[in-house]
Design goal:
Elements (H helix, E strand, L loop, with lengths): L1 H8 L3 E3 L11 H24 L10 H14 L2 H7 L7 H4 L6 H35 L2 H10 L8 H34 L12 H28 L5 H32 L4 H11 L1 H24 L5 H32 L5 E3 L12 H21 L8 H7 L1
Antiparallel strand pairs: 1-2
Helix pairs in contact: 2-3, 2-4, 2-8, 2-9, 2-13, 2-14, 3-6, 3-14, 6-7, 6-8, 8-9, 9-10, 9-13, 10-12, 11-12, 12-13
Amino acid sequence: MSEILWGALQHVQGYIYPNEVEVNWSVLIALYPYITGLVAGAFIVASLERIFKVEAVKPTYRLALLTALAFLLCAPLPLVAHLGHPERALEIMMTPHLTSAMAGFGFVYAWYLMAVLLIELYFDYRRDIVMWAQEKTGLKGMIYRILTLGDYDISEKAVRSDNKIVNIVTVIGLPSAAFLHGYVGFIFGSVKANPWWNSPLMPIIFLFSAMVSGIALVLLIYIVSSYIRGVELDRACTDTLANYLLYSYLLDLSLEFMELAHLFYTQEEGIDAIRYLISEKIFWTFVVIQIFLGTLVPIFLLLFARTGLVKFSIRKYIYIFATVLTLIGVFAMRWNVVIGGQILSKTYMGYTTYIMPLFGPESVLLAVGIWILPFIILAVLIKLLPPWEHPHEWERAELE
């Protein structure tokens, strides 16, 4: 740590306070809102079919729920790894601090996991789980029998009741997902001493960027999983998700442009420092990666694909490229907010430097490991609860 601190001291520019030499919120804190945003965005994709009755995206409904669960299980890991002492993580539940915005994450997280996502998944899969419990043997069969919770009633009345519960939980879950990620922007936006963060639009920008990243992730996973399974993509589903990604992108870009326009129009204290921050200190991550590669290029690709000038066999590759750039661009946004806000000194006359180690508790390696873990969990969940297999589908159609 002393070597990192000494390295940062060599790059200090201008006048800063002594406690600003070291960037305390590392890459893990940038990764944390990124993962929670993917959770919220994936759940919104699931809500398109359940609440808004967008039938075209039905093939991704269950996949979106499983994706949200996999990433939600890993959402606290960056915080725990950053703070250390994972054995004390549950104290937030035992000794609640109801006026703390940071402590609020624990309550929202527990509510969203236990009262929303798990309940929706259970009642949506319950009929299939009962059938798999009766058909499968060995370890898998035992797991399915445990998951039935002793309820083997799959009569028409029971299934209709399950569908009603799922619809109600989805309606409750949509604002819960928005609150889960919007509060992250609230935390940054409420820091008045930092002009780069202090904006009432911050929670809304975080929420819309979460929608962008979540839709992009589900679309990418759907395309890749279909290729791995050797199954043809549902064209209507793929194109519809791409259209919703484009709409979300345009809204997100408008909000970010509005925030920057307001920032430069008001010319409040610290505007010169912000101008230098954007043009010099975070130019590559903000202007090049976030705005150009992560926003403008994907929007252009999605608009081009929407013209219908290219066949679907080409469009799917455009979607893959656009979604990958989207995921990179949204992470760059989180990076620029978290790291960029700390590089700027509260004196408005100096800047520090963030040096990210390759190994260690706040390292690139740990961040990459946490990022990969949800995909491993998702692969296990898909193996256990296939999102594209529906036993007796004709019976399900009759019930609906």
